[in-house]
Amino acid sequence: MAAGTGINAGAASRVLNRAYRQIGGLAGKRLAGVVLACYAFATDLVSGWHGMNFAMRGLLDEPAHVATALVILGALIRWRGTLPDPRFGLMMLTCSWAVDVDHLPAEFGSYVLTDGTPRPYTHALWVVIVLTVAWAAARFRAVRSGRLRPATAELILSGTAWGVAAHFVRDIATAPMAFWWPVTGMSAEVPYWCYVAALSCCIAIPPHRLRLLRPHKPVQVPEIAAAQQ
Ligand SMILES: [Zn+2]
Questions:
Q1: What residue ranges are annotated as transmembrane (predicted)?
Q2: Distance 99 CA to ligand 1 centre (A)
């Protein structure tokens, strides 16, 4: 039973790694970034999702969040000249939409996370700061320990921070949020063109210059830890 579970976990992580390589390979192309950004813009300009019920808003808004995160991940891939570790990339893509689970209490009638604010308290800058500090602490601890780096905790925390930050890049341009909570619960929102400009800047980032100077090699991506256990 244990051996079977291990085989299943290994097979699942191989499938995830393969999917991540293919998705990352596509996201790293600027044309794909243009298509993804246009998809997100079209969702906002054509669908009118703001006036829909919670389920429909989620069905339309969350894929646009993933598209936004892929545009940012694509810029990161071109900047680095290689795919980030799957533990980072998959966590970033997951958190780019999963942070919206904090809307659920309000949908079930509880305002424990949204009392007096346009969006939950966890839709605010402090979350990114806490995650970044936690990542820095994990990195410091891994460096001091002398173990093989980057440690899984570093990759998970940095991927989560990037995913949540990518989520806010879209959120703050599409509806008010209490971005500065708990300093103030006042609504914050930026003009939509700021979102368009942010994704355009990401798409404008060219491929890593070193890639133009060296012969093409297959991208080496570390396997997810579960595959090695
Ligand atoms: Zn959100």
A1: 31-52, 121-140
A2: 6
